Amino acid sequence: MSGIIYDTHFYATLEAEVNGFRKALTKRWRKEVATAIQRFGTFPTAFHRSPAPYGEQLWDYRDPINSLHISWGACEVITWAQGDQHGGVPSCPGRTSSPQEGVPPRTTFDRDGNEVMTPTEVSCGVGSIMQSVEYWAYSEGSAVLVKLPKFDKHDQRAIEGAQQALLTIGGALGLRAAGGSDASFAPSSNADLINKVDKLIGANGQNAGWYKAWTGLTADTLKDGFFASIAPTLGNQAQIAAGIHNLYSARGTIIQEMRSGSLTIVGDASKALDATHVVTTDLNPTWQTFQGMGTALSIAGAWNPVLGAVGASVQLIGIVGQNFAPQMKHTAYAHELEAVMTALWDHLNEQSNDLMYRENDYNNGIHDLRDTIFGINSFNLELYDLTENTGTGSGTRDGFTVDIGTVLELADTCFESAQIYEDQLIPKIGTVRAADASLATEDGSEGFADPKVKALVLEYREYLKTACGRLYTAGEEIKAAARSYAATDAERKAAFDATMKDWDEGPAPGHARDWAGDTDRSGWQVHIPGAPSYVNDTTPGGDDAGGPEYETEATRR
Of 173, 201, 481, 495, most Cβ neighbours within 10 A? Predict the structure, then answer.
């Protein structure tokens, strides 16, 4: 299997391969036609092209007078066609005798049965037939070119860039490559967010250190609400990044399979046409197909339950990866002209069917992923919604302990985590979207799956923005809680003032509250006419039976 084809003008490459096929077909067809004329036999004028509506108007080599030239005149065009065919079609004087074949009888009969004197020469039309063969072969090549999947401007490097951006996002969120992955990366290279999250919720599912330094109703509300949503949010967002990554691999694999297959099918046909002995040979058995794409996407897309520790382990599939179960199809061609042309068309039909199946697998893959995401509660997808809460809370401050420095450190960590989202993760979506034009079918149009993948990328960006906005909001509310605690006695106020002297975080940006609202997921709720109510009456997160319901001050009243 050759490497990935990065050509962004692949149609020109494909056309060059077809031109080579046209040349080989012209040469072989001319040989076959020359032999048929010499034997006064017949020959095909079309295989898969559209023939002339009223038949081909060809020079009649079987005409009694014209046949004298074929039998006795050693036609120079036939000799040229049966040889190496160097140069253009030669001009033939149309002699009716030759040193090689001898001299015909003095008289002969014309097509009407009249006896006539044998002419010394005729107007040879074999050359015109050979010119027609070139046209036929060109038209056969055009029929092949129409049949071939184009995948012209699809940019595999852009797709790979999108995948790397997704892995960067996923790595920052704790994504790990599961065993058996085709793609590997080092998530530890961007562990800043994970280290900060460990301060908020504890490392590896253990209690965070601040649980002892801050207790009471407000602390418990944050611990059981906002902070409880961090691990599932990061885990699910990491898995979404991996799922989209694998879908990009599916599109990239379809492009590669079809490009490589086209060049192999046509190239091997050209080689077969150059051969003259009648055998069946696997000339170049490197037509690689990926019949396991649907199964691989299904296995890799199986959702991992979110545990207390941050992160997720997902099987990552690469372009033309082993997880797509590559198989080798042999381009076997018999070397007879008709057999080559029949086998070529059979291969092209098989390739067309393969493309249909791959596109269907790809479409099923995006449906499975979006259905899964649609069923996850926002709490587990983009953090607990604090926008209905106030900084001071609604409960009493009786029975609490608080270390102002610890509380402000939590606020600072929320701000820093939000900044990682805003500065490092969300901008990567731009790199992902740079591959949008390459998420397309063979003719460059969007298929059934591609617009859904692009829509999911935009939806994913909104999840990241929502989480970012909610981290900013959490930072503001925790800082406001610290200020409220500081108002209760002089010692806490002194601690608050001392910390704020070195406070290097500005206020949350103005868009933080706008970003913190729930992501609109109504676009995936497709109404099915005639379906029962339990099918149509669905809401995002409705399948997440284990997901916590929202608890805000408004719902606690």
Answer: 173
Largest Cα separation within the chain, whole Å, is 135
d(CA 303, CA 242): 11
Separation between Cα atoms, residue 412 and residue 500, nearest integer Å: 11
Contact 466, 517 (CB under 8 A): yes
CA dist 440 to 152, 247, 311, 366, 435, Å? 10, 13, 32, 14, 10
CA-closest candidate to residue 19, choices 372, 270, 279, 388: 270
CA distance 489 to 495: 10
Percent helix, strand and coil across the chain, each to the nearest 5: 55, 5, 40
If you count them, how many residues does the chain have? 557
pTM over 0.85, yes/no: yes
**CB 63 within 8 Å of CB 111:** yes
Give the C-alpha separation, 60 to 99, whole Å.
24
Q: Bridge partners of 214? A: 402
Type of residue numbered 204? N
Separation between Cα atoms, residue 343 and residue 271, nearest integer Å: 13
Q: What is the pairing mode between strands 175-177 and 312-314? A: parallel
Contact 263, 15 (CB under 8 A): no
User: Cα separation of 262 and 272, whole Å?
Assistant: 15
Residue 321 exposed, middle or buried by CB count within 10 Å (0-12, 13-18, 19+): buried
Contacts of 324 (CB under 8 A, 6+ apart): 249, 250, 253, 290, 292, 293, 296, 317
What distance in Å separates the CA atoms of residue 402 and residue 192, rounded to the nearest whole number? 27
For 354, the 3-state DSSP assignment is helix
Tell me if 33 sits within 8 A of 130, measured CB to CB. Answer: yes
**DSSP designation for 109:** E
Token output for 326: 């590559």
Which pair of tokens denotes residue 18? 């077809």
Contact 400, 207 (CB under 8 A): no
Structure-token pair, residue 43: 């020959």
pLDDT of residue 402: 85
8 A C-beta contact, residue 181 and residue 173: no
Q: What is residue 468's three-state secondary structure?
A: helix
The Cα–Cα gap between 75 and 38 comes to 9
- Write the single-letter amino acid at 88: G
Residue pair 399/406 in contact by the 8 Å Cβ criterion: no
Residue with tokens 């298929």: 447
Q: List the beta bridge partners of residue 327.
A: 289
Q: What is the dihedral of CA 468, 474, 479, 485, to 10 degrees?
A: -170
Residue showing tokens 């941050």: 310
- Which of 25, 70, 61, 57 lies closest to 42 in space, CA to CA? 61
Q: Provide CB contacts within 8 A for 243, sequence distance 6+.
A: 300, 301, 314, 369, 372
Lowest mean pLDDT among 169-178, 256-265, 534-543: 534-543
- For 57-70, write each residue's pLDDT tens digit: 899 999 999 999 99
Question: What kind and span of H or E run contains 535?
Answer: helix 533-536
- Which token pair is 127? 């050359």
Strands 280-282 and 107-109: unpaired
